[in-house]
Amino acid sequence: MLKIVNLNKRFGGLQALSNVNMEVKKGEILGVIGPNGAGKTTLFNIITGFLKPTSGRIIFQGMEIQRLPPAKIVKLGIARTFQIVKPLKNLTVFENILTAVGYQNYFGLHFFKRWNEEEYVKKAEKIIKLVGLEGHRDTVSGLLPLGLQKRIEIAKALAVEPKLLLLDEPTAGMSYEESEEIKELIKRVRERGVTIMLVEHNVPFAVDLTDRMYVLSYGKIIAEGSPEEVIKNKKVIEAYLGGEYASVES
Amino acid sequence: MISVLYLITILTLIGIYALATLGLNITMGYAGQVNLGQAAFVGIGAFTSAILTTSYHISFWIALPLAGIMAFLIGILIGIVSIRLKQDFLAITTIGFNFIVVAIFLYYDVFGGSFGIINIPRPTLFGITLKSSYYMILVFIVLAIAMFFNYWMENSWLGMALRAIKEDEDAAESMGIDVKKYKIIAFSFGAFFAGVAGSLLAHFKTYIVWSDFGFSVSIMLLTMCILGGLESMYGPIIGASIVILLPEIFRPLAEYRLITYAIFLIVLLKYMPQGIIGRGSYLDRKIRAFFKGEESTRKEEDQNAEDS
Amino acid sequence: MYSSIIQELLNGITLSAVYVAIALGLTITYGILKILHIAHAGVYLWGAYIGYIAYVYTGSVILSLIFGALGAALIGVAIERVFYIPALDSPPHITLIISIALFTLLSELAAKTFGYHPKGFTIHWPIYSWTIGGVVINSMQIFFLAVVYSASIGVWLWATKTRMGLASRALIQDIETAKSMGVNVNRLIDINFLVGSALAGLSGVLVGMYYTIIWPHMGDVVAYKGLVVIVLGGFGSIIGAIVGGLILGISESYLIAYFGNILPRDAFAFLIMIIILILRPQGLFGRSE
Fold it and tell me: Which CATH number covers residue C46?
């Protein structure tokens, strides 16, 4: 579904990603884990067009997308959430999701069409129900607690009817109970036929949820495979435990 | 004793400035793009219309939309510049833009230099010259069209997109909204209404000069916009009415015009940033709550009343 | 031809003096609060008037300069405490508009208090004039340049070499961290406004003396030119403000001398600023993020 070929990203002197090759298969939940600063969010930003790669290609359903602006990539069917939630905080939950539901109307001159059509309102209501925000439909989103704002984040991403959904640390800053709820939500989303790629800092969460994993460390892929394989991989353990320990061992 | 003619003059001016403020409200209120040079767009429209009708003897009815289009095109340029700049630097760029435009009016003979352009014709319709009350009605019709546009915008995806880029540009992009495009739209649409207002002003006063469009006029429009209330189609009318009527009612204030604007701005921004009827203001919440009771189908619009 | 180039350079350096002084004040205040302090030009203007009054009553140039600087310092700190500190959480364009409104208020109040007409500000010092190789310079100009530039260099040294100045620069990085480390943040902010405003007031008085005139709108050009300079200099860079001020003043005087008729010089300055902002949004000497 999504193929990343020889991707490189340099910021000044810093090599944030080097020679990353990845593949996301249709229908799976793919995890990308790695210690802080490994380049996970940079990778997401490049796939979704917020950053341009220094070199390399990203192919989504047979089409090169690495030079496209974010809004175009959304239209092709890749949606994302942000690690630091970005709700439109002075708008209500409904308005937030409605804005995203209308994603096809922001191109060309369609923007003159009215949003108050049953089709869009219904779609937005359905998504609100799916993520469990019915009780807060008309609440100004900035007033909600973080856990609920994370749901808005996922709801907005679902509203653009993605084929591939990129979740950037969906559980960051959440309690165990909240994380479990998000996990259930992600599973429900997958059942609807959405392929999911998620970046996580919380390794147990990712192990539990994903079908397959990549491990990034200092911008390089150091391991790949099923969650069970990956967490037993020596390189991965070294990367997580830090350099000193690794050098003593070797 | 107030003469009818005087009253008509005041109402016409309110209409014209409300139109320019309505444009500013699109750029600043809905889309959140700071524009401290709106008077420059008014001036561009005014001089376009004045030059076309005096030097080229083109009909007012053609010059009016062309004035808007001219401002629209320059608005696109400023919109492109705005893509790279953040808030306060965008603000000073628009100040600079205002100064540059006014300097061009002053320095080049096409614009009449320091004497300005005189004998700008009043429009005629079916052989009647539109004066006093007729001209006022014309201004009100144009304003009504602009308000209808504003109403339409609020209820269209355009309004959604503008609000989204105001709130968070990255979030907007992730929802399929091309931020660059909508920033350009915000500036060019806002400039269009200013340009039309400029044309109406030129043919109303029949005499315009560079200093009619200086930075202090931008400050006046800004005061009207913030006082009336951002993100409200009625805000510009309320704002323009108060700012123009106040010095007329309290004569001594006329001399302290700039001081009044300054105090308005400081007090408003400190204590009442939503203005009189802007989105989220007390009046706005009451009105929305009122309509919520009557019209339950529109309840998705009415949130603030209960939640905040 | 050669002498006229030197003459324009001298004129440029003279013109730059006030840009440098104002931009230094704007830079240290922008640096610390991230507020574009347009009202700084109002402080400059009131410094000039206070200095003028002091001169009328005492007849002393020195006292006039001292009072001008002190008065300006008080106004600057008052603005910071009453308007800026409470507005720190608002988006930057809100504080910018408040600052513009304050500047308008200060200019208009000066006009209402002292009249819209310019006031002559001629000091009793005799003026000697010399011609060296075709370049004309007089004693008043030397006095003006010497005081403005040495005060500016003083502020520069204060900001970059003393402990307090360096502490202020450190504050720029992170106000919250500084607070948690027990730094008296408010006092540091006060002192920066005090120093910047005193320099503005001093240069206001000196500009009045040098051009022998003060008027309520003398701050207008300075208000927005100061912004041009800090954009040139790269926002918050002290040395950038000095170099930016010199570049602007010198290039302006050459432009007027050789291409005077295309646009008025204020418009030139803004044109330069906008071009720089488009090409290098971080400023001419600013570091890219």
Answer: 1.10.3470
